[in-house]
């Protein structure tokens, strides 16, 4: 069964789409079959992967026959169609046979209100019972069709009903961050909203109405994999001072606000598993199996990975629909020292994303044994 990982932060501009694409590609490089899902009505992931630059290209895809996007996939539940939900015909991705895209749709936003009503009243209104479980059902059917190991869900920057549903029906979640005031403050709002969402999901799982739906609400308890801090400037091989100060502030916010709340709501993996996924860092922080809980909280609050500013690589990646770490010399279009420096940056990002992918494989692959 595919492992569903939500990439979530209600603050925009933190790199959710970039991370989804590049992490998915690296997991695919490591032999995993991956579906990346565009759940943001802005459809940035879909546009980047397929090279769509205008509304006409999207309209052409939406007008094709069959179930080709997330809105069409959900329509049987949300529009009371007589046909059942079917797997989406995902888009293949040039250069990566192990990864597919489940395209987004700007019209997904139209389902926000009915889903919100359903999630508040579906326990008492049978006519709404199929909506809360429909997204997970669609993803599972599609994952089965493509024999996927991972589903990476690129979420919009909001605290709306769709994001509430996506996160609480996932197996795991990652919180991308940008080192600034707004991400630091996001640790406070996340610490407030996550337990409310978790409490709602626990009630949903107990509801006979939702359990007996055509698209049952899944019995999931999403687990926190960690944060990713990215897109900061480097000076003398380290984050510039202003960025480093915000990085430390984010770490403190995660440790002091988010981790205790996640622990209270059973949204953490076993402490030992985090340590096994990052043994070198555990040694550096003197964390072991006998460390007190507060030391573990400090360790778990450390980012899964830190990624500096991609500079020109991000524009080249989007232009050529390729990951930032796997661009050809022709795609880069540089020469001499400039090309050498760019390729050195690519190699560094390749190593970082490879490390990130290995940590995720370790964390998700061993969770069931605890």
The total tally of domains equals 1
**What's the assembly state of these chains?**
single chain
Instruction: Report the total helices.
Output: 16
CATH class: Alpha Beta
Number of strands: 10
CATH-level-2 architecture: 3-Layer(aba) Sandwich
Question: Gap between N and C termini, in Å?
Answer: 18 Å
Kindly describe this structure.
With 370 residues, the chain is of the alpha/beta class. It has a single domain (3-369), classed as Rossmann fold (3-Layer(aba) Sandwich). 51% of the residues lie in helices and 13% in strands. The chain is built from 16 helices and ten strands. Strands 3-4-2-5-1-6-7-10 form an eight-stranded mixed beta sheet. Strands 8-9 form a two-stranded antiparallel ribbon. Helix 8 (181-206) packs parallel to helix 10 (241-264) and helix 11 (271-277) packs antiparallel against helix 16. The two termini are 18 Å apart. The relative contact order is 0.15. The mean pLDDT is 89.
In a nutshell, what does this entry contain?
By secondary structure, the protein is α/β, with parallel strands linked by helices. Helices cover 51% and strands 13% of the residues. The chain has a single domain (3-369), classed as P-loop containing nucleotide triphosphate hydrolases (Rossmann fold).
């Amino acid at each position: 069964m595919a492992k569903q990982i939500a990439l979530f932060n209600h603050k925009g501009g933190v790199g959710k789409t970039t991370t989804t694409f590049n992490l998915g590609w690296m997991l695919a490089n490591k032999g995993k079959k991956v579906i990346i899902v565009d759940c943001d009505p802005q459809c940035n992931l879909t546009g980047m992967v397929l090279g769509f630059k205008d509304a006409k290209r999207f309209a052409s895809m939406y007008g094709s026959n069959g179930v080709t996007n997330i809105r069409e996939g959900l329509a049987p539940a949300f529009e009371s169609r007589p046909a059942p939900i079917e797997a989406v015909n995902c888009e293949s991705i040039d250069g990566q046979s192990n990864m597919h895209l489940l395209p987004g749709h700007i019209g997904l936003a139209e389902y926000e209100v009915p889903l919100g009503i359903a999630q508040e009243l579906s326990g008492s209104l049978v006519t709404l019972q199929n909506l809360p479980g429909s997204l997970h059902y669609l993803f599972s059917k599609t994952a089965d069709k493509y024999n996927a190991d991972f589903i990476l869900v690129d979420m919009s920057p909001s605290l709306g009903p769709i994001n509430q549903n996506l996160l609480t029906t996932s197996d795991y979640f990652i919180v991308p961050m940008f080192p600034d005031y707004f991400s630091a403050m996001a640790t406070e709002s996340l610490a407030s909203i996550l337990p409310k969402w978790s409490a709602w999901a626990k009630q949903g799982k107990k509801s006979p109405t939702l359990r007996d739906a055509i698209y049952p609400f899944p019995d999931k308890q999403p687990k926190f994999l960690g944060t990713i801090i990215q897109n900061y400037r480097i000076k003398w091989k380290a984050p510039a001072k202003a960025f480093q100060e915000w990085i430390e502030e984010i770490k403190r916010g995660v440790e002091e606000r988010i981790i205790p709340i996640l622990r209270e709501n059973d949204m953490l993996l076993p402490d030992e598993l985090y340590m096994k996924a990052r043994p070198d860092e555990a040694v550096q922080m003197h964390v072991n199996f006998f460390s007190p809980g507060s030391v573990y909280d400090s360790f778990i609050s450390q980012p899964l990975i830190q990624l500096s500013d991609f500079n020109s690589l991000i524009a080249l990646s989007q232009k050529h629909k390729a990951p930032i770490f796997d661009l050809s010399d022709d795609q880069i279009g540089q020469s001499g020292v400039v090309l050498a420096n760019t390729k050195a940056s690519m190699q560094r990002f390749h190593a970082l994303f490879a490390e990130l992918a290995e940590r995720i494989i370790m964390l998700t692959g061993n969770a069931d044994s605890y």
